[in-house]
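RETRY 2/3 - previous attempt timed out on the joint model. Re-submitting the same 218-residue input unchanged.
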Amino acid sequence: MRNYEIMFIVNPNAQDEEIDKINGQIETIITSGGGKIDKIEKMGKRRLAYEVDRQREGHYVLFVMSANGEIIKECERRLRVMDAVIKYITVRVDEEARRMDKIKNYRQKRAARRGSHASAAAGGQSTEEAMQ
Amino acid sequence: MKSPSSREKRPAGQKQYYRRKKVCKFCVERIDSINYKDVKLLSQFVPERAKIMPRRISGVCSQHQRQLNDAIKKARNIALLPFTTE
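RETRY 2/3 succeeded.
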């Protein structure tokens, strides 16, 4: 299982219920395929940076989930077929998240090491940092 | 004590160029991940013509410039940022 983000733009003339319907369809694809949804975010109506399908605005929707390639393939196929969806993008996020963890760990370790150096002067506070 | 102070008091005609050392915004502010959804941040690096600002001007370090590049291109793909200005 990998973590992905799918962002898509729905036609600005679409009603709220229509967006919910699309969200529901995508949701069922993911859950029925064995994936897990972490977040569904309706980012609201935004101006597009350029014209897409003769539209200058669009409703942005963001899905964050853990899924596999099959599910993503099916989602993208469905999004392509839907008339109301004018653009979509899928981004894999787990590699980035892993990199972030690494940096965070490194920082913490460094901070702990620095803390232990200072402990000669400062006292017991650094041991708490080292424990974390 | 004449000689060190004379350096501060420069004669008027003599121009001296001081270029402030540029620093990478992402290193300084400890921004680790450059996300394509963060339009406010990314738009600082796409000037008027919507081109990506070169490193020699923005001072961004090479690692972050690469991440920035990817993020801007993703953002363009989903119409958060323009490819060109019309």
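Chain B touches chain A through 15 residues (CB under 8 Å). Closing ticket.
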